[in-house]
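Most newcomers find our protein records easier to grasp once they have seen one. Sequence and backbone structure share a record, each on its own labelled line. To make this concrete, we reproduce a full record directly below:
***
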Amino acid sequence: MTHKTLLEEFLTFEKENNLFKWEIDNVPIWELLRMSVFTDLKNKLVNENITINEQKTKKSIAIFFKFFINSIFHNPFIKSKQKDYLILNHPRRKLNSGIYEDVYIDPLLPHLNDNYVVLEGYVNLNKDHYRPIQTENLYYLDILQLPSRLISSLSVSAELSHADKIRIMEVETLINTNWNIQISTFEKKISKFIKRWNFVLPKIERLILKINPKKVLNVVSYSFINQAFTFCAHKNSIPVIEFQHGTVGKYHIAYNYSFNEGIDIKTFPDIFLAWGKNWVKDARLPIPINNIEPVGFPYYELFFKKDDFTRNPKQVTVISQYRKDIALLTKDIACALPDYEIIFKAHPAEYLDASIKYPFLTNMQNVRIVADDKTHLYNLFRQSSFVVGVHSTALLEALAFCPNVLIAKLPGWEYFEDLEENENLKFISNVNDFSQSVFKCAKTESNSTLLDYFEDESIKKIVNIIK
Protein backbone atom coordinates (compact mmCIF):
# COMPACT_ATOMS: atom_id res chain seq x y z
CA MET A 1 0.00 0.00 0.00
CA THR A 2 1.18 3.52 -0.76
CA HIS A 3 1.05 6.49 1.61
CA LYS A 4 -1.45 8.13 -0.75
CA THR A 5 -3.84 5.17 -0.79
CA LEU A 6 -3.69 4.74 2.97
CA LEU A 7 -4.42 8.41 3.62
CA GLU A 8 -7.49 8.45 1.39
CA GLU A 9 -8.78 5.25 3.03
CA PHE A 10 -8.12 6.73 6.47
CA LEU A 11 -10.03 9.94 5.74
CA THR A 12 -13.00 7.93 4.48
CA PHE A 13 -12.83 5.66 7.52
CA GLU A 14 -12.95 8.46 10.10
CA LYS A 15 -15.77 10.18 8.23
CA GLU A 16 -17.94 7.06 7.88
CA ASN A 17 -17.53 6.25 11.58
CA ASN A 18 -18.20 9.82 12.85
CA LEU A 19 -14.95 9.77 14.80
CA PHE A 20 -14.70 13.54 15.16
CA LYS A 21 -17.83 13.44 17.31
CA TRP A 22 -16.18 10.95 19.66
CA GLU A 23 -15.41 12.47 23.06
CA ILE A 24 -14.48 10.92 26.39
CA ASP A 25 -15.24 13.17 29.38
CA ASN A 26 -15.14 16.24 27.11
CA VAL A 27 -11.75 15.22 25.69
CA PRO A 28 -11.78 15.42 21.83
CA ILE A 29 -10.11 12.04 21.74
CA TRP A 30 -10.02 11.39 18.00
CA GLU A 31 -8.39 14.77 17.31
CA LEU A 32 -5.59 13.79 19.69
CA LEU A 33 -5.45 10.21 18.48
CA ARG A 34 -5.75 10.31 14.70
CA MET A 35 -2.14 11.19 13.85
CA SER A 36 -0.79 8.45 16.11
CA VAL A 37 -3.20 5.87 14.67
CA PHE A 38 -2.36 6.87 11.11
CA THR A 39 1.37 6.65 11.84
CA ASP A 40 0.93 3.17 13.32
CA LEU A 41 -0.97 2.08 10.22
CA LYS A 42 1.63 3.58 7.93
CA ASN A 43 4.45 1.79 9.73
CA LYS A 44 2.61 -1.52 9.30
CA LEU A 45 1.29 -1.09 5.77
CA VAL A 46 3.59 1.39 3.99
CA ASN A 47 6.92 1.57 5.81
CA GLU A 48 7.50 -2.14 6.27
CA ASN A 49 10.68 -2.00 4.17
CA ILE A 50 11.97 1.25 5.68
CA THR A 51 14.24 1.44 8.68
CA ILE A 52 13.24 4.45 10.78
CA ASN A 53 16.22 5.25 12.96
CA GLU A 54 15.41 5.58 16.63
CA GLN A 55 16.71 8.49 18.64
CA LYS A 56 18.81 7.68 21.68
CA THR A 57 18.24 9.40 24.99
CA LYS A 58 20.76 10.45 27.57
CA LYS A 59 20.75 9.08 31.08
CA SER A 60 17.78 10.18 33.14
CA ILE A 61 19.90 12.04 35.70
CA ALA A 62 20.96 14.55 33.02
CA ILE A 63 17.38 14.96 31.87
CA PHE A 64 16.09 15.64 35.38
CA PHE A 65 18.91 18.10 36.07
CA LYS A 66 17.88 20.10 32.99
CA PHE A 67 14.26 19.89 34.07
CA PHE A 68 15.16 21.23 37.53
CA ILE A 69 17.13 24.19 36.11
CA ASN A 70 14.53 25.10 33.48
CA SER A 71 11.67 24.81 35.96
CA ILE A 72 13.35 27.39 38.20
CA PHE A 73 14.87 29.90 35.78
CA HIS A 74 12.63 29.61 32.70
CA ASN A 75 9.24 28.75 34.19
CA PRO A 76 6.37 30.63 32.46
CA PHE A 77 4.05 30.13 35.43
CA ILE A 78 6.47 32.18 37.56
CA LYS A 79 8.22 34.51 35.12
CA SER A 80 5.76 35.40 32.32
CA LYS A 81 3.78 38.63 32.24
CA GLN A 82 0.65 39.83 30.51
CA LYS A 83 1.26 40.30 26.76
CA ASP A 84 -0.84 40.62 23.60
CA TYR A 85 0.75 37.66 21.80
CA LEU A 86 1.34 34.20 23.20
CA ILE A 87 3.70 32.38 20.82
CA LEU A 88 4.32 28.63 20.72
CA ASN A 89 7.51 28.50 18.69
CA HIS A 90 9.51 25.76 16.98
CA PRO A 91 12.24 24.52 19.35
CA ARG A 92 14.48 23.07 16.63
CA ARG A 93 16.56 26.18 16.15
CA LYS A 94 19.18 26.71 13.43
CA LEU A 95 22.69 28.03 14.11
CA ASN A 96 23.43 31.27 12.25
CA SER A 97 26.49 33.43 13.04
CA GLY A 98 26.82 31.94 16.51
CA ILE A 99 23.15 32.41 17.42
CA TYR A 100 20.43 29.75 17.43
CA GLU A 101 17.38 31.06 15.61
CA ASP A 102 13.83 29.87 15.33
CA VAL A 103 13.57 30.45 11.59
CA TYR A 104 9.76 30.56 11.66
CA ILE A 105 9.17 33.02 14.49
CA ASP A 106 12.32 35.01 15.28
CA PRO A 107 12.26 37.26 12.14
CA LEU A 108 8.78 38.43 13.19
CA LEU A 109 9.53 39.30 16.83
CA PRO A 110 11.14 42.76 16.32
CA HIS A 111 7.86 43.85 14.71
CA LEU A 112 5.74 42.95 17.75
CA ASN A 113 7.11 45.75 19.94
CA ASP A 114 8.15 43.50 22.82
CA ASN A 115 4.48 42.70 23.38
CA TYR A 116 4.82 38.92 23.27
CA VAL A 117 5.64 35.82 25.30
CA VAL A 118 7.41 32.92 23.57
CA LEU A 119 6.86 29.46 25.05
CA GLU A 120 9.30 26.79 23.91
CA GLY A 121 9.09 23.04 24.27
CA TYR A 122 12.22 20.91 24.38
CA VAL A 123 13.67 19.98 21.03
CA ASN A 124 14.03 16.21 21.33
CA LEU A 125 13.89 13.22 23.62
CA ASN A 126 16.95 14.54 25.47
CA LYS A 127 14.98 17.58 26.66
CA ASP A 128 17.41 20.09 25.15
CA HIS A 129 17.05 23.79 24.36
CA TYR A 130 19.49 25.49 22.01
CA ARG A 131 21.44 28.50 23.24
CA PRO A 132 22.62 31.25 22.82
CA ILE A 133 19.53 32.96 21.46
CA GLN A 134 18.38 36.54 20.95
CA THR A 135 14.68 35.97 21.54
CA GLU A 136 13.22 38.13 24.29
CA ASN A 137 10.53 37.07 26.76
CA LEU A 138 11.10 33.34 26.28
CA TYR A 139 10.17 30.59 28.74
CA TYR A 140 10.32 26.81 28.62
CA LEU A 141 7.43 24.36 28.73
CA ASP A 142 9.42 21.59 30.42
CA ILE A 143 7.22 21.96 33.50
CA LEU A 144 4.28 20.76 31.39
CA GLN A 145 5.97 18.36 29.02
CA LEU A 146 8.08 16.07 31.18
CA PRO A 147 5.65 15.53 34.10
CA SER A 148 2.74 14.96 31.70
CA ARG A 149 4.71 12.30 29.82
CA LEU A 150 5.69 10.59 33.04
CA ILE A 151 2.10 10.63 34.29
CA SER A 152 0.80 9.23 31.00
CA SER A 153 3.26 6.34 31.31
CA LEU A 154 2.17 5.28 34.80
CA SER A 155 0.58 1.86 35.00
CA VAL A 156 -2.60 3.31 36.51
CA SER A 157 -5.18 3.65 33.71
CA ALA A 158 -7.48 6.59 33.20
CA GLU A 159 -11.00 6.09 34.51
CA LEU A 160 -13.17 4.95 31.62
CA SER A 161 -16.88 4.23 31.74
CA HIS A 162 -18.30 0.95 30.49
CA ALA A 163 -19.74 2.80 27.47
CA ASP A 164 -16.32 4.32 26.71
CA LYS A 165 -14.68 0.89 26.83
CA ILE A 166 -17.29 -0.54 24.50
CA ARG A 167 -16.74 2.30 22.01
CA ILE A 168 -12.96 1.87 22.18
CA MET A 169 -13.33 -1.83 21.46
CA GLU A 170 -15.65 -1.08 18.54
CA VAL A 171 -13.22 1.35 16.92
CA GLU A 172 -10.30 -1.02 17.48
CA THR A 173 -12.24 -3.83 15.79
CA LEU A 174 -13.19 -1.56 12.90
CA ILE A 175 -9.53 -0.64 12.35
CA ASN A 176 -8.40 -4.26 12.50
CA THR A 177 -11.11 -5.35 10.08
CA ASN A 178 -10.73 -2.44 7.66
CA TRP A 179 -6.97 -2.89 7.18
CA ASN A 180 -6.67 -6.58 8.00
CA ILE A 181 -4.20 -5.98 10.82
CA GLN A 182 -4.08 -6.72 14.53
CA ILE A 183 -3.79 -3.98 17.15
CA SER A 184 -4.52 -4.68 20.79
CA THR A 185 -3.22 -1.66 22.74
CA PHE A 186 -5.88 0.84 21.70
CA GLU A 187 -7.37 1.32 25.15
CA LYS A 188 -3.90 1.79 26.65
CA LYS A 189 -3.03 4.43 24.05
CA ILE A 190 -6.24 6.32 24.72
CA SER A 191 -5.71 6.11 28.48
CA LYS A 192 -2.30 7.75 28.06
CA PHE A 193 -3.74 10.61 26.02
CA ILE A 194 -6.51 11.24 28.54
CA LYS A 195 -4.16 11.20 31.56
CA ARG A 196 -1.81 13.62 29.87
CA TRP A 197 -4.66 15.87 28.72
CA ASN A 198 -6.20 16.03 32.18
CA PHE A 199 -2.82 16.98 33.63
CA VAL A 200 -1.93 19.80 31.21
CA LEU A 201 -5.32 21.36 30.49
CA PRO A 202 -6.01 23.14 33.82
CA LYS A 203 -2.41 24.37 33.93
CA ILE A 204 -2.59 25.75 30.40
CA GLU A 205 -5.87 27.48 31.23
CA ARG A 206 -4.17 29.09 34.23
CA LEU A 207 -1.23 30.21 32.07
CA ILE A 208 -3.51 31.71 29.43
CA LEU A 209 -5.35 33.67 32.11
CA LYS A 210 -2.00 34.91 33.47
CA ILE A 211 -0.67 36.08 30.08
CA ASN A 212 -4.14 37.16 28.85
CA PRO A 213 -3.15 37.28 25.17
CA LYS A 214 -5.27 38.77 22.41
CA LYS A 215 -3.95 36.15 19.99
CA VAL A 216 -2.10 32.84 20.11
CA LEU A 217 0.50 32.17 17.41
CA ASN A 218 1.92 28.71 16.89
CA VAL A 219 4.17 26.79 14.52
CA VAL A 220 3.21 23.12 14.93
CA SER A 221 -0.53 22.90 15.55
CA TYR A 222 -0.58 19.09 15.78
CA SER A 223 1.84 18.67 18.67
CA PHE A 224 -0.01 17.53 21.80
CA ILE A 225 0.83 20.61 23.89
CA ASN A 226 -0.10 22.98 21.06
CA GLN A 227 -3.41 21.18 20.59
CA ALA A 228 -4.16 21.74 24.27
CA PHE A 229 -3.26 25.44 24.00
CA THR A 230 -5.52 25.82 20.97
CA PHE A 231 -8.37 24.08 22.79
CA CYS A 232 -8.01 26.44 25.76
CA ALA A 233 -7.66 29.52 23.54
CA HIS A 234 -10.89 28.65 21.72
CA LYS A 235 -12.59 28.10 25.07
CA ASN A 236 -11.58 31.67 25.99
CA SER A 237 -12.51 33.15 22.57
CA ILE A 238 -8.88 33.85 21.65
CA PRO A 239 -8.06 33.42 17.94
CA VAL A 240 -5.21 31.06 17.03
CA ILE A 241 -2.91 31.57 14.03
CA GLU A 242 -0.56 28.90 12.70
CA PHE A 243 2.62 29.55 10.70
CA GLN A 244 3.61 26.99 8.08
CA HIS A 245 6.76 25.13 9.09
CA GLY A 246 7.03 22.30 6.55
CA THR A 247 5.38 20.42 3.73
CA VAL A 248 1.65 21.01 3.57
CA GLY A 249 -0.53 19.31 0.98
CA LYS A 250 -3.14 16.65 0.44
CA TYR A 251 -0.93 13.85 1.81
CA HIS A 252 -0.02 15.26 5.23
CA ILE A 253 -2.41 13.73 7.76
CA ALA A 254 -2.28 16.75 10.11
CA TYR A 255 -3.57 19.08 7.37
CA ASN A 256 -6.18 16.89 5.73
CA TYR A 257 -9.71 16.21 6.90
CA SER A 258 -12.72 14.77 5.14
CA PHE A 259 -15.82 15.02 7.31
CA ASN A 260 -19.51 15.76 7.34
CA GLU A 261 -20.71 19.35 7.52
CA GLY A 262 -21.02 20.82 10.98
CA ILE A 263 -18.00 19.15 12.56
CA ASP A 264 -15.96 21.59 14.62
CA ILE A 265 -12.26 20.75 15.10
CA LYS A 266 -11.49 22.04 18.58
CA THR A 267 -7.69 21.71 18.39
CA PHE A 268 -7.00 23.25 14.96
CA PRO A 269 -6.09 26.95 14.55
CA ASP A 270 -8.50 29.53 13.14
CA ILE A 271 -6.09 30.94 10.55
CA PHE A 272 -3.26 29.29 8.61
CA LEU A 273 -0.44 31.39 7.18
CA ALA A 274 1.14 29.57 4.23
CA TRP A 275 4.40 30.34 2.46
CA GLY A 276 2.62 30.43 -0.91
CA LYS A 277 -0.62 29.34 -2.57
CA ASN A 278 0.80 26.14 -4.06
CA TRP A 279 1.50 24.63 -0.64
CA VAL A 280 -2.17 24.64 0.34
CA LYS A 281 -4.03 24.45 -2.98
CA ASP A 282 -4.94 20.78 -2.42
CA ALA A 283 -4.81 20.55 1.39
CA ARG A 284 -8.13 19.86 3.08
CA LEU A 285 -7.82 22.13 6.10
CA PRO A 286 -10.79 22.23 8.51
CA ILE A 287 -11.18 26.01 8.26
CA PRO A 288 -12.83 28.37 5.73
CA ILE A 289 -10.79 29.00 2.60
CA ASN A 290 -10.70 32.72 3.45
CA ASN A 291 -8.78 31.86 6.63
CA ILE A 292 -5.88 30.39 4.63
CA GLU A 293 -3.49 33.20 3.75
CA PRO A 294 -0.36 32.88 1.54
CA VAL A 295 2.12 35.31 3.10
CA GLY A 296 5.67 34.06 2.43
CA PHE A 297 8.52 32.79 4.61
CA PRO A 298 10.61 35.66 6.07
CA TYR A 299 13.75 33.64 6.87
CA TYR A 300 13.82 32.12 3.39
CA GLU A 301 13.22 35.49 1.80
CA LEU A 302 16.22 37.01 3.58
CA PHE A 303 18.56 34.25 2.39
CA PHE A 304 17.20 34.31 -1.14
CA LYS A 305 18.49 37.87 -1.56
CA LYS A 306 22.09 36.91 -0.73
CA ASP A 307 24.32 36.12 -3.68
CA ASP A 308 27.85 35.63 -2.30
CA PHE A 309 28.66 31.96 -2.99
CA THR A 310 30.70 29.65 -5.19
CA ARG A 311 29.04 26.60 -6.75
CA ASN A 312 30.88 23.30 -7.11
CA PRO A 313 29.78 21.67 -10.42
CA LYS A 314 30.52 18.25 -8.93
CA GLN A 315 28.84 18.54 -5.54
CA VAL A 316 25.66 16.64 -4.66
CA THR A 317 23.74 17.19 -1.42
CA VAL A 318 21.40 14.44 -0.23
CA ILE A 319 18.77 15.35 2.38
CA SER A 320 18.42 12.65 5.01
CA GLN A 321 15.02 12.09 6.56
CA TYR A 322 15.97 9.85 9.42
CA ARG A 323 15.73 6.75 7.20
CA LYS A 324 18.19 4.11 6.12
CA ASP A 325 16.85 3.84 2.56
CA ILE A 326 17.93 7.42 1.78
CA ALA A 327 21.39 6.68 3.16
CA LEU A 328 21.56 3.62 0.89
CA LEU A 329 20.57 5.79 -2.08
CA THR A 330 23.44 8.11 -1.13
CA LYS A 331 25.82 5.15 -1.24
CA ASP A 332 24.59 4.20 -4.71
CA ILE A 333 25.05 7.77 -5.96
CA ALA A 334 28.58 7.89 -4.54
CA CYS A 335 29.45 4.61 -6.26
CA ALA A 336 28.00 5.78 -9.58
CA LEU A 337 29.86 9.12 -9.44
CA PRO A 338 33.25 8.45 -7.84
CA ASP A 339 34.69 11.80 -8.95
CA TYR A 340 31.82 13.78 -7.35
CA GLU A 341 31.68 15.03 -3.75
CA ILE A 342 28.54 13.68 -2.09
CA ILE A 343 27.26 15.58 0.96
CA PHE A 344 24.93 13.57 3.20
CA LYS A 345 23.04 16.17 5.27
CA ALA A 346 21.93 14.32 8.38
CA HIS A 347 18.56 14.97 9.97
CA PRO A 348 18.88 17.01 13.20
CA ALA A 349 17.59 14.03 15.19
CA GLU A 350 20.58 11.95 14.04
CA TYR A 351 23.35 14.53 14.50
CA LEU A 352 24.79 12.70 17.51
CA ASP A 353 25.29 9.32 15.85
CA ALA A 354 24.89 9.61 12.06
CA SER A 355 28.42 8.27 11.45
CA ILE A 356 27.69 5.25 13.65
CA LYS A 357 24.34 4.52 12.01
CA TYR A 358 25.72 4.74 8.47
CA PRO A 359 29.18 3.15 8.52
CA PHE A 360 28.84 2.32 4.82
CA LEU A 361 28.90 6.09 4.16
CA THR A 362 31.65 6.91 6.62
CA ASN A 363 34.01 4.55 4.79
CA MET A 364 33.47 6.08 1.34
CA GLN A 365 36.13 8.54 0.20
CA ASN A 366 33.80 10.79 -1.79
CA VAL A 367 31.07 11.04 0.89
CA ARG A 368 31.03 13.65 3.64
CA ILE A 369 28.45 13.45 6.41
CA VAL A 370 27.30 16.86 7.66
CA ALA A 371 25.78 16.30 11.10
CA ASP A 372 25.52 19.83 12.50
CA ASP A 373 24.31 23.30 11.56
CA LYS A 374 27.72 24.93 11.23
CA THR A 375 27.19 25.08 7.48
CA HIS A 376 23.77 26.57 6.83
CA LEU A 377 21.51 24.31 4.77
CA TYR A 378 20.82 27.08 2.25
CA ASN A 379 24.55 27.59 1.79
CA LEU A 380 24.94 23.87 1.10
CA PHE A 381 22.32 24.28 -1.60
CA ARG A 382 24.17 27.26 -3.07
CA GLN A 383 27.43 25.33 -3.17
CA SER A 384 25.87 22.23 -4.76
CA SER A 385 24.86 21.55 -8.34
CA PHE A 386 22.40 18.82 -7.31
CA VAL A 387 20.08 18.34 -4.32
CA VAL A 388 18.40 14.97 -3.80
CA GLY A 389 15.68 13.88 -1.35
CA VAL A 390 12.27 12.27 -0.97
CA HIS A 391 9.65 14.53 0.64
CA SER A 392 11.59 17.04 2.72
CA THR A 393 10.27 20.60 2.57
CA ALA A 394 13.88 21.63 2.00
CA LEU A 395 13.68 20.25 -1.54
CA LEU A 396 11.38 23.07 -2.63
CA GLU A 397 13.40 25.60 -0.68
CA ALA A 398 16.43 24.33 -2.60
CA LEU A 399 14.87 25.39 -5.91
CA ALA A 400 15.84 29.00 -5.19
CA PHE A 401 19.48 28.14 -4.52
CA CYS A 402 20.39 25.04 -6.53
CA PRO A 403 19.85 24.52 -10.28
CA ASN A 404 18.95 20.81 -10.11
CA VAL A 405 16.55 19.35 -7.54
CA LEU A 406 15.83 15.62 -7.83
CA ILE A 407 13.00 13.89 -5.95
CA ALA A 408 13.57 10.17 -5.44
CA LYS A 409 10.50 7.96 -5.70
CA LEU A 410 10.95 6.27 -2.36
CA PRO A 411 8.02 5.85 0.07
CA GLY A 412 6.58 9.26 0.88
CA TRP A 413 7.45 10.90 -2.44
CA GLU A 414 3.69 11.23 -3.02
CA TYR A 415 3.82 14.44 -1.00
CA PHE A 416 5.26 16.03 -4.15
CA GLU A 417 3.66 13.97 -6.91
CA ASP A 418 1.54 16.90 -8.11
CA LEU A 419 4.61 19.03 -8.82
CA GLU A 420 5.31 19.55 -12.50
CA GLU A 421 8.75 18.58 -13.75
CA ASN A 422 10.76 21.36 -15.35
CA GLU A 423 14.36 22.08 -16.24
CA ASN A 424 15.23 22.49 -12.55
CA LEU A 425 13.03 19.82 -10.96
CA LYS A 426 13.04 16.11 -11.85
CA PHE A 427 11.72 12.87 -10.40
CA ILE A 428 14.03 9.86 -10.33
CA SER A 429 13.20 6.19 -9.75
CA ASN A 430 16.73 4.89 -9.23
CA VAL A 431 20.38 5.81 -9.34
CA ASN A 432 20.48 5.35 -13.13
CA ASP A 433 17.90 8.11 -13.49
CA PHE A 434 20.10 10.27 -11.30
CA SER A 435 23.19 9.63 -13.43
CA GLN A 436 21.29 10.55 -16.58
CA SER A 437 20.17 13.79 -14.95
CA VAL A 438 23.75 14.60 -14.05
CA PHE A 439 25.18 13.97 -17.50
CA LYS A 440 22.33 15.14 -19.72
CA CYS A 441 20.08 17.61 -17.97
CA ALA A 442 22.25 19.54 -15.53
CA LYS A 443 21.55 23.26 -15.40
CA THR A 444 23.90 25.88 -14.05
CA GLU A 445 21.41 28.48 -12.88
CA SER A 446 18.75 28.05 -10.21
CA ASN A 447 15.06 28.68 -10.70
CA SER A 448 14.06 32.09 -9.35
CA THR A 449 10.36 32.04 -10.35
CA LEU A 450 9.02 30.78 -7.06
CA LEU A 451 6.27 33.20 -6.04
CA ASP A 452 3.63 30.46 -6.10
CA TYR A 453 5.59 28.71 -3.34
CA PHE A 454 7.17 31.67 -1.54
CA GLU A 455 5.42 35.03 -1.57
CA ASP A 456 7.51 38.17 -1.24
CA GLU A 457 7.19 40.99 1.33
CA SER A 458 6.41 38.33 3.90
CA ILE A 459 7.01 40.33 7.10
CA LYS A 460 4.69 43.11 5.98
CA LYS A 461 1.94 40.64 5.10
CA ILE A 462 2.23 38.66 8.32
CA VAL A 463 2.25 41.73 10.56
CA ASN A 464 -0.81 43.15 8.79
CA ILE A 465 -2.74 39.93 9.31
CA ILE A 466 -1.93 39.27 12.95
CA LYS A 467 -2.50 42.89 13.96
Summary: The radius of gyration is 23 Å. The first strand starts at residue 85 and ends at 88. The chain is about 40% helix and 15% strand.
